[in-house]
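Hi V.,

Quick status before I head out on leave. The structure for the redesign project is tokenized and pasted below; the design run finished overnight.
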């Protein structure tokens, strides 16, 4: 009985479910460069070099203020707390992932750590937050304060979040469910499409996407998601298709010429009917309009090839250009079941164009009158029993093929052609196309024999698929792409594909040492995994096609009702919720697109994991500057005596000694561009002092921008223009970079040293960089207090 209770207790204790998220509500990333300050997060976190520098600058500002006030510096704890903005769990630590609660300025601290911070460093709080309730609680008692800084989920409080194996064991890798299924999320890109059969880019640096519907329309989508009112191409009058559920005929393929930007040529593949009886597939060349880059010239069609189709199914439909510049055409075996045409079927008959991968050169015409040439290295060019266009054979009905653009760094895999070949009764398969290859149909289906007599033929010499799955998993494969994009680094090298009938998405991962491919199951992430703004974790069942944009990001096209006339088609984009690319790395600079007609903005329809009204709106962390003196108004400026005995309105002399070790250390922490920025500020300050007189001491300068501070025992002063001084003070923003021993010297000259309590009253809370935190009433009250203190002094 005791053992049973222990098992029940363990079952109730669930491990923490990891959901790394940054303060910008996006996944963490691996910084591209070394982090100088918050270097514990340089392998994976939420800060790039720029953010790290900003945190360091705020840190040193606070350290200066603490030294000036004579407080304990608390350097280690202060740094640890400030660097939690870089934690991969920053959104949890600052309670930002919950849109219904206010975002914290202090990260969630575990009670023991919070108690230590309260006992040693609570005086630092006023430099970190303007929350008066929190500041009051810190002065009251440790329990009240630490209960306010605590988090509801104890797994995420600092520093426990660093010690949890559940949260840190696979940090930065694709999230897997208990079955090992890779959890991915989606965004909706386009909708209201009638059986979208393909989406492709034109490769002309405009980053437009062209989406073709089965009935013969091709639409232009701009980078902002909007669709142009006029279609790029309307072939609906020529294309053969019906509203029958699952009809395979229609507009099936399209490919832009590699030099489309210069020649405007593209190629299309579609079904036609001749004399109301004979059905064919037609491959044609067309050109873009000379007057509108978003419209094809409807009169430019030039016939390339026509092939008779003996049945309504197995029409193939893929067109693509290889890295060799040649056009590849993928045809079906002619239809019906079991490829019953001829002695061996169309697929094994090299003299037939059906059931083949064809390769032709469309950049010239043949002397015999054909509108294309045969590449000189086609494998069966000198075989009298074969058509010279044949590149590979033995395929059943390849539905969706793609060219691997190669690893973005090494180029590994570039040029490989992957295809999904739809099976007959038992297996679906994925193939890599090679020159002269025999892919086995109808002798084989997947890895198994289909026609026993042909299968046992020793001369078959077929190329085995890299992967096959049974009809228990799915019944109609849809070929995909090898991911080579930028935004989801974890997916690089995965071949992602799906099944039309089951709606299942799958992936293959290559073992480069053996050349074998291993299946990686893909599933939609759960609610917590996909809890990012704009993400969804469900899609329509019937996966028609996959697509790749000009930047290499991956999409798929699906519908809930597979009829050529039903507008239920949607385009989805893959997104890895566990890791993103560093900010700015994937930025594109598309060429401008001249739009002549109307545009329809994209209106999403799918239900997101976070409701549209739940999108968090936290601004970026504020950069605080704490003044060393309260703001001084123009009516507080008192006359001082110059060395010559003349009375003038101005500021006190500021002694500027040599840089201290701390200041040098701070400068070294900054990047070169930060140092240049500081130098530029100094040059601007020097330019603003053109109207001042040279002083006897070389170490004394006056800066109206810094502060106004009357002094009486200086050896020399400067005469300033009264209007300039007034304008400088009017801004009510005071910044200081003065050194600590400089402040101590100023305190000795101006009178007895204030107590910490008095200093707290005198110094206000943080001043926002762009907006003062003081209202007029508080300024007047503060001015009165200063006058009283001045008299006492």
């Amino acid at each position: 009985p005791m053992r049973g209770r222990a098992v029940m207790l363990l079952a109730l204790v669930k491990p923490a479910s990891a959901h790394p998220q940054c303060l910008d509500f996006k996944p963490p990333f691996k910084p591209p460069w070394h982090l100088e300050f918050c270097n514990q997060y340089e392998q994976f976190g939420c800060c790039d070099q720029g953010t790290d520098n900003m945190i360091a600058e705020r840190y040193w500002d606070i350290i200066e203020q603490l030294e000036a006030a004579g407080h304990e510096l608390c350097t280690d704890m202060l740094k640890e707390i400030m660097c939690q903005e870089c934690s991969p769990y920053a959104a949890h630590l600052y309670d930002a992932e919950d849109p219904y609660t206010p975002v914290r300025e202090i990260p969630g601290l575990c009670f023991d750590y919070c108690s230590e911070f309260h006992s040693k460093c609570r005086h630092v709080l006023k430099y970190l937050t303007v929350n008066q309730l929190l500041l009051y609680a810190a002065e009251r008692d440790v329990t009240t304060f630490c209960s306010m800084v605590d988090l509801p989920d104890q797994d995420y409080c600092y520093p426990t979040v660093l010690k949890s194996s559940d949260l840190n064991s696979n940090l930065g890798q694709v999230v897997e469910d208990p079955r090992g299924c890779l959890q991915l999320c989606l965004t909706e890109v386009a909708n209201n499409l009638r059986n979208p059969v393909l989406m492709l880019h034109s490769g002309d640096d405009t980053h437009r996407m062209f989406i073709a519907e089965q009935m013969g329309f091709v639409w232009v989508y701009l980078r902002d998601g909007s669709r142009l009112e006029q279609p790029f191409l309307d072939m609906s009058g020529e294309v053969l298709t019906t509203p029958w559920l699952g009809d395979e005929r229609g507009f099936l393929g399209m490919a832009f010429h590699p030099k489309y930007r210069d020649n405007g040529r593209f190629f299309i593949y579609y079904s036609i009917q001749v004399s109301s009886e004979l059905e064919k597939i037609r491959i044609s060349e067309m050109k873009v309009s000379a007057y509108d880059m978003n419209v094809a010239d409807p009169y430019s069609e030039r016939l390339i090839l026509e092939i008779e189709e003996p049945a309504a199914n197995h029409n193939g439909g893929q067109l693509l250009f290889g890295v060799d510049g040649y056009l590849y055409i993928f045809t079906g075996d002619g239809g019906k079941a079991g490829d019953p045409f001829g002695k061996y079927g169309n697929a094994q008959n090299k003299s037939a164009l059906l059931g083949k991968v064809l390769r032709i050169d469309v950049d010239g015409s043949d002397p015999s009158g054909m509108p294309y040439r045969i590449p000189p290295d086609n494998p069966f060019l000198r075989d009298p029993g074969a058509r010279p266009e044949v590149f590979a054979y033995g395929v059943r009905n390849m539905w969706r093929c793609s060219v691997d653009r190669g690893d973005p760094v090494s180029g590994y895999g570039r040029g490989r052609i992957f295809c999904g070949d739809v099976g007959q009764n038992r297996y679906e398969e994925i193939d890599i196309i090679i020159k002269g290859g025999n892919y086995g149909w109808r002798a084989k289906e997947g890895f198994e024999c289909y026609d026993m007599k042909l299968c046992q033929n020793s001369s078959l010499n077929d190329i085995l698929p890299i992967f096959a799955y049974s009809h228990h998993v799915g019944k109609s494969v849809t070929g995909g792409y090898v991911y080579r994009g930028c935004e989801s680094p974890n997916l690089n090298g995965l071949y992602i594909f799906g099944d039309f009938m089951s709606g299942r998405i799958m992936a293959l991962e290559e073992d480069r040492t053996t050349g074998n491919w291993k299946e990686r199951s893909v599933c939609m992430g759960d609610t917590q995994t996909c809890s990012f703004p704009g993400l969804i974790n469900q899609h329509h069942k019937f996966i028609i096609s996959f697509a790749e944009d000009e930047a290499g990001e991956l999409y798929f096209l699906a519908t809930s009702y597979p009829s050529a006339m039903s507008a239920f088609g949607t385009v989805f984009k893959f997104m890895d919720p566990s890791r993103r690319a560093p900010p700015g790395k994937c930025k594109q600079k598309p060429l401008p697109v001249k739009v002549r007609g109307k545009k329809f903005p994209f209106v999403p329809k799918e239900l997101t994991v976070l409701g549209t009204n739940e999108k968090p709106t936290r601004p970026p962390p504020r950069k605080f500057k704490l003044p060393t003196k309260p703001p001084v108004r123009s009516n507080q400026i008192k006359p001082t005596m110059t060395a010559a005995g003349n009375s003038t309105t101005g500021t006190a002399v500021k002694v500027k000694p040599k840089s201290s070790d701390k200041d040098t250390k701070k400068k070294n922490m900054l990047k070169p561009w930060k140092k240049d920025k500081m130098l530029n500020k100094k040059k601007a300050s020097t330019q603003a002092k053109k109207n001042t007189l040279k002083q006897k001491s070389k170490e004394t300068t006056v800066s109206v921008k810094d502060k106004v501070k009357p002094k009486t025992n200086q050896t020399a002063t400067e005469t300033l223009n009264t209007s300039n001084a007034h304008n400088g003070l009017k801004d009510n923003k005071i910044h200081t970079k003065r050194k600590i021993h400089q402040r101590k010297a100023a305190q000795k000259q101006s009178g007895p040293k204030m107590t910490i309590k008095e200093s707290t009253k005198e110094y206000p809370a943080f001043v926002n960089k762009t907006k003062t935190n003081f209202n007029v009433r508080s300024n007047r009250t503060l001015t009165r207090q200063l006058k009283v203190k001045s008299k006492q002094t």
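Above is the designed sequence. The first helix runs from residue 2 to 12.

G. will cover questions while I'm gone.

Best,
W.
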